[in-house]
Write a structure and sequence with these properties.
Layout: H1 3-7, H2 15-22, H3 35-38, H4 44-53, H5 57-62, E1 96-97, E2 101-108, H6 127-130, E3 138-147, E4 150-157, H7 162-165, H8 182-191, E5 193-201, E6 207-210, E7 217-219, E8 224-228, E9 247-249, E10 254-259, E11 265-269, H9 295-301, H10 310-313, E12 332-335, E13 345-347, E14 359-362, E15 367-373, E16 377-379, E17 381-389, E18 405-412, E19 417-422, H11 439-444, H12 446-453, E20 458-459, E21 461-467, E22 471-476, E23 500-506, E24 515-523, E25 549-554, E26 560-564, H13 570-573, E27 578-582, E28 592-597, E29 603-610, E30 615-621, E31 659-665
Parallel strand pairs: 8-13
Antiparallel strand pairs: 1-28, 2-31, 3-4, 4-5, 5-6, 5-7, 8-9, 10-11, 11-12, 12-13, 14-15, 15-17, 16-20, 17-18, 18-19, 19-24, 21-22, 22-23, 23-24, 25-26, 26-27, 27-28, 29-30, 30-31
Bound molecules: MU-OXO-diiron and calcium ion (CA) (2 copies).
One calcium ion binds near residues 255, 256, 550 and 565.
């Protein structure tokens, strides 16, 4: 299908859904490298049959009695480590939290976050106002505590949905962006990036924004930032507005992220390709980069996506005019939340891909380790290991721990072991003969380098979360493109709509190890439908199972929490996206319980535990947009004037607003104990 076919397909109710479907077309040309094609299956032929014939994994593992899950999670054989009464599944216009908890709105799109910011006026938006107000589509949430009950909240703003953001505009991709103006584009650019602002916990236990802290700031698609690491200053990083290759304006599509152990904020640049434009198209109207000097790189990264009209007004987003600008996006950006004058830094040592997140840990040998997935069908899981150990001296913003070290990509072997393959220039195939002149090339073209190393193409690696004991959890969200002959041990289902979660145990419990073992924790989806092939602990209730894991967090007790992003697929489960408590240990391993659910059409981001796990931050992204044709009683696509929900204000003059929710126990105390 061409890009235009997908844009005009009525199945896709908004631009984000259409472009996710377009990105369904993998750019990885090395799919014959799937380990399933060359080695036997870890779980044997039985799993292959499941993939091909839809034989239920639940039946195979637990017998048919497990397939009709109990309606209540009561009377379980072992005691859940998560002490709360499970929320009932469903979907409606509001958010819901388990009994005994508060889920309060902390900050909404448009709320002023600096002392000088104007109040939000949705009918008279300006870029100048937006650049001082909370941005759109909150994804990652992190917190840099200054003292108990006070600190800097750090929130990514991933993308914008013009059809519910601006009055009278409607969906723009179908019209070639004819309603977009430079003014609207500039508002979009100001609504991207991140927000950093102080929040304070009051005597009543409620958190609120302190907009008067002079360190509060917005980071946007125009914020000046520096570039460090192996690609800094390279010719491929130079543009007409920066002939040094060391300064870039802005960050875009900041999805998940991370906080360093010393409290700086990492923003992951995910779908950067979508912001670049070309006027050069083929007969189907698809972007044609064949005449570009870096055509192979652009094709592997899906550049340019033409999801936004920015390139019509800003030459740097038009590859016909500024072909190198695209090499300056797709990185991990570090921000100092305490110093608003410190320019953010793009760390090129951590590689260039569609970074989903950047979750950090200190390994048992003292090194800094960061896990980051490349969220595309058939792309890879990566991790960074610093050269030096973490010390007081190097625990600073702009640390060499983020520029000197090794980036690895994962190969998941069929015998349950994992090898982390180093992306180091001069080693193995990463040589000039193969097009890599230096480490700068290896980092700018991380995907091409990882292809040559034989990394395992995965089912869309979303967030990855390390735990201090050498364990890491990898969210594989879905991959409906995987064919039966591409099934492998680590990606065990063809046409996977609901994804799975992999648990990695690094060798010796040391996150910097280059080997370890892996296992599948759960295969997601409805366990009562044999064709889905889901695998859960059989005591999981009808409310507890989920589809499409996306973000995750570990609480102060080392327990795992998962948030979901089903996109328009939620109609296949009937469940709004939500937050689930997923057991990783003991008899209940693989047991999941629903704790929070979103208003219709929203995905759940965050989650982030702070305040010794007495506070949980959740981010409800794009409420009221995804799959609203499946919302019974509404059954149409949302617009600004006619949205499926007006969460969280429910004001007839206000569209739905992406917002951060803060969860606390009604009587105080640690969550879920
Ligand atoms: Fe922005 Fe991969 O989710
Ligand atoms: Ca995500
Ligand atoms: Ca997602």
């Amino acid at each position: 299908m061409s890009r235009d076919d997908i844009i005009n397909d009525p199945e896709y109710g908004n631009k984000a859904e259409a472009f996710e479907a377009f990105d369904d077309i993998p750019t990885n040309p090395h799919l014959d490298n799937t380990i399933g094609a060359v080695i036997s299956r870890r779980y044997g032929r039985r799993d292959m049959l499941r993939g091909m014939l839809g034989v239920s994994a639940a039946t195979a593992l637990f017998g048919t009695s497990a397939m009709i899950a109990p309606k209540q999670a009561a009377a379980m054989s072992a005691e859940s480590r998560y002490k709360f009464d499970e929320l009932a599944w469903g979907n409606d216009t509001e958010h819901h939290i388990a009994e005994g908890y508060n889920a309060d709105i902390l900050v909404r799109w448009g709320d002023p976050i600096t002392a000088d910011a104007p109040e939000f006026d949705v009918m008279n938006q300006t870029a100048e106002a937006q650049a001082q107000q909370f941005g759109y589509n909150n994804d990652y949430v992190g917190f840099a505590e200054v003292e108990p009950g006070r600190g800097m909240l750090c929130v990514n703003h991933e993308y914008t949905n013009e059809e519910v953001m601006f009055p009278g505009l409607g969906r723009q991709d179908r019209s070639g962006f004819e309603g977009m103006t430079k003014e609207l584009v500039d508002i979009e650019m100001a609504a991207h990036g991140g927000s950093v602002f102080e929040i304070v916990k009051g005597d009543d236990g409620k958190w609120s924004v302190n907009r008067d802290n002079p360190a509060n700031r917005r980071i946007t698609a125009n914020t000046e930032m520096t570039i460090d690491g192996p690609a800094a200053g390279h010719d491929r990083m130079k543009t007409s507005y920066d002939d040094t290759g060391t300064m870039v304006l802005g960050t875009i599509n900041n999805c998940a992220g991370g906080m360093t152990p010393w409290g700086t904020y990492l923003m992951a640049e995910e779908n950067f390709h979508g912001y670049f434009w070309t006027d050069t198209v083929d007969a189907d109207g698809d972007p044609d980069v064949s005449a570009q000097p870096e055509a192979a790189s652009m094709e592997r990264y899906g550049v340019p996506g033409r999801w936004y009209a920015w390139g019509q007004y800003h030459d740097r987003f038009n590859i016909d005019k500024e072909p190198n600008e695209v090499n300056r996006f797709g990185w991990i950006v570090e921000v100092d939340p305490m110093n608003p004058d410190a320019a953010p830094i793009k760390h090129t040592a951590l590689g260039r891909f569609r970074h989903e997140g950047a979750e950090t840990t200190v390994a048992s040998d003292g090194k800094l380790v960061i896990y980051s997935g490349d969220d595309n069908r058939f792309d890879y899981q990566y991790k960074w290991v610093s050269a030096e150990v973490v010390t007081d001296e190097n625990s600073v913003f702009g640390s060499s721990l983020l520029s000197e070290g090794t980036l690895y990509v994962a190969r998941f072997n069929e015998d349950g072991t994992i090898d982390w393959l180093a992306l180091t220039h001069g080693e193995g195939p990463l040589t000039a003969e193969n097009g890599f002149e230096s480490q700068a090339d290896v980092m700018i073209d991380t995907r091409l380098a990882a292809d040559l190393l034989g990394a395992t193409p995965m089912d869309r690696p979303e967030d990855a979360q390390p735990r201090g004991d050498g364990t890491a959890y990898i969210m594989l969200t879905n991959n409906t493109r995987r064919q039966t002959d591409q099934v492998d041990a680590a990606n065990p289902r063809a046409e996977s709509s609901f994804g799975h979660i992999i648990e990695i145990k690094e060798e010796g419990g040391n996150h910097s190890a280059t080997t370890g073992t892996w296992d599948i924790l759960v295969k997601c989806g409805d366990p009562t439908i044999a064709e889905v092939g889901a695998e859960w602990n059989p005591e999981t209730s009808e409310s507890g199972w989920f589809g499409s894991p996306d973000n995750c967090a570990i609480d102060a007790d080392g327990r795992l929490w998962i948030s979901t992003d089903q996109g328009s697929n939620w109609g296949k489960t009937g469940k709004s996206d939500g937050l689930y408590a997923l057991e990783t240990e003991g008899e209940l391993r693989g047991h999941s319980k629903l704790f929070f659910r979103c208003p219709v059409g929203g995905e759940l981001c965050g989650p982030y535990f702070a305040d010794n796990s007495q506070t949980l931050f959740l981010a409800v992204q794009h409420p009221g947009t995804d799959g609203t044709k499946d919302f019974v009683g509404f059954e149409r696509d949302s617009t600004f004037e006619d949205p499926a929900t007006r969460w969280p204000d429910f004001d007839p003059a206000m569209p739905p607003r992406p917002s951060v929710v803060v969860v606390t126990k009604e009587d105080g105390g640690v969550i879920a104990v």
